[in-house]
Design goal:
The protein is α/β, with parallel strands linked by helices. It folds into 4 domains: 3-120, Beta-Lactamase; 142-210, Helix Hairpins; 219-386, Histidine kinase-like ATPase, C-terminal domain (Heat Shock Protein 90); 415-536, 3-Layer(aba) Sandwich (Rossmann fold), CATH 3.40.50.2300. The protein is 43% helix and 20% strand. The chain is built from 16 helices and 17 strands. The chain binds adenosine-5'-diphosphate.
């Protein structure tokens, strides 16, 4: 194609949808603009008189000009087409073009023209940039939420460790000979500490619910036992106020279901706890009902009271977080205002509901509706992860909790290795197990625990998680390796720890532990764990 013939056709380029530029390669080897179609003129905002006869460097100047010229020279020297993106700094905002630049040879085989066609990719670029910004914001939010999780886990650990000392020692103190006044002081410390623990557990539970971190551990369980347990745990609190606590579990209601018993216990503890808290006289009743005909939620558990009731105007928001009914004349009522928010979130997590009805001055009824399969109807779900004691349900401010009463010397001769670095907690375990006749050995680090186990063995190990030198998880792994290598049976290991997150339970089990008890623990709970694991071994 002759050069002149070619330039005669520039006008045709206006029919093209893309932005097209044409550069003529001079005798000096420099490419200079000779044509831009309408689209290209719109994109660059240049007129023919602006660009004609100029190189890209002369036209744009600076970095943009140098870059464009390099692209042009690259195609000239290689003789091959190239595709690249360019940014045009137009008056309003940057324009992004994806350009393909082709060499055009004359009939003599000389590279005479460069023809570039560009598509405007500004909106794609903007979308990519917006996506990138969103991704960065999401990463940041995720980071912040992980930081919050870490903070909560740490705070929980730091508070539970001393709380274990306070509650445990107080429990032991109450078992000693105290005069009436001392008994009142000890009860007050005990009740205040357990109340404080409830607040801490509420806040942790609530933040886990907000972060959608509530995992369900489904297994077959007896609902009747759970209802009865809750009644037993709160019985003393009701009796103290002179309220009649009734449990109504009719014969025709099935006992066995598959579900997360600890979460159901937590729901019922919250509702029954509230019923007792807001009732001054009369009764509180916990009642189960089962209607196989109700397709949606056949299982109903009602907690009814004859207490102060709730005004209709307040009904809507008692389930909101941090809200308490404003009773102008009443004294400030203890509680975080989180209980019902947690209760409803837990029920909803299980596919259920919690509703309330009330007549002010006469009482309230809270109804939990659930649809739990019965064993055999559906395979058990999440396995038998031991529940994390430490939530509201594990704490009762009722003095004189009934529990397994062990005959003295019940663990006589049982060699228990206690890996625990905190001196107060060592003392606590020593005192709690004193009357059982167990033979206790203490290790202040995981390393010492491993060495003691390897040299002397043990019948059961109580293992703290965070200890200096070697933590409880690593110590457990080493003990399990040692047992395998020496052909020994597995010694039961129970984690005794202030880390109360569900992920901690999983970490303990994964490391080879058998059970988990979260601090602060009660004497009865400690004994129950030892008996259970001792029996299984
Ligand atoms: P809190 O931890 O403060 O008890 P909840 O979320 O459990 O918070 O309850 C929120 C509010 O709902 C309570 O402060 C109380 O005013 C009201 N409430 C809950 N249960 C009852 C009840 N059984 N009788 C009367 N009022 C109740």
């Amino acid at each position: 194609m002759q050069q002149d013939e070619f330039s005669d056709h520039f006008g045709i380029l206006d029919a093209v949808e893309l932005a097209v530029i044409v550069l003529k390669v001079g005798d000096d080897g420099q490419p200079r603009y000779v044509a831009m179609n309408t689209k290209a003129r719109e994109a660059t905002e240049f007129e023919h008189s602006d660009y004609a006869g100029k190189t890209a460097l002369e036209l744009y100047g600076g970095t943009i000009g140098r870059r464009a010229l390099n692209h042009h020279l690259g195609v000239i020297s290689s003789g091959k087409e190239a595709t690249y993106d360019i940014v045009l700094p137009t008056e309003h905002k940057a324009k992004y073009l994806s350009t393909t630049l082709r060499p055009v040879f004359d009939s003599g085989g000389r590279l005479a023209y460069l023809v570039g066609s560009s598509a405007d990719i500004t909106s794609e670029r903007e979308r990519d940039e917006a996506l990138e910004l969103t991704r960065m914001a999401l990463d940041k939010a995720e980071e912040a939420s992980q930081a919050k999780e870490r903070f909560l886990a740490n705070m929980s650990h730091e508070i539970r460790t001393p709380m274990n000392g306070i509650i445990g020692m107080c429990e032991l103190l109450k078992e000693t000979d105290l005069d009436e006044q001392q008994q009142v002081f000890a009860d007050t410390i005990f009740n205040s500490a357990t109340a404080l623990l409830t607040v801490i557990n509420d806040v942790l539970d609530f933040s886990r619910i907000q972060a959608d971190k509530i995992a369900l551990h489904d297994a077959p369980f007896s609902l009747r036992d759970v209802v009865q347990d809750v009644g037993t745990l709160l019985w003393a609190r009701a009796a103290y106020k002179g309220i009649d606590l009734r449990i109504d579990y009719p014969e025709d209601v099935p006992h066995e279901f598959v579900g997360d018993a600890s979460k159901i216990r937590q729901i019922l503890m919250n509702l029954l706890g509230n019923a007792i808290k807001f009732t001054e006289a009369g009764h509180v009743t916990i009642r189960a009902a089962y209607d196989p005909g109700a397709a949606k939620l056949p299982l109903r558990i009602q907690v009814a009271d004859s207490g102060i009731g709730i005004e209709p105007s307040q009904m809507d928001w008692i389930f909101s977080a941090f809200e308490q009914v404003d009773r102008k004349t009443a004294r400030v009522i203890e509680g975080t205002g989180l209980g019902l928010a947690i209760t409803r979130a837990l029920a909803e997590r299980m596919g259920g509901t919690v509703t309330a009805a009330s007549v002010p001055g006469e009482g309230s009824v809270f109804t939990v509706g659930l649809n739990l399969p019965q064993p055999g109807e559906a395979g058990p779900g999440g396995g038998d992860t031991p529940e994390v004691l430490g939530s509201r349900q594990a704490v009762s401010t009722a003095p004189g909790l009934p529990g397994p009463e062990l005959p003295p010397e019940a663990l006589k001769g049982m060699r228990i290795l206690v890996a625990e670095d905190n001196r107060t907690n060592q003392l606590l375990v020593r005192k709690m197990l004193k009357s059982t006749g167990a033979d206790l050995r203490f290790a202040g680090t995981g390393q010492i625990a491993v060495e003691l186990f390897e040299s002397e063995g043990a019948d059961l190990i109580l293992m703290d998680l965070s200890m200096p030198v070697l933590g409880g998880l690593d110590a457990t792994r080493r003990i399990r390796t040692h047992e395998r290598e020496a052909g020994l049976p597995e010694c039961p290991i129970v984690a005794l720890t202030a880390n109360a997150q569900p992920s901690d339970v999983e970490a303990c089990l994964a490391a080879g532990m058998n059970d988990f008890l979260s601090k602060p623990f009660r004497k009865n709970e400690l004994l129950a764990r030892i008996l259970r694991q001792g029996k299984q071994a």
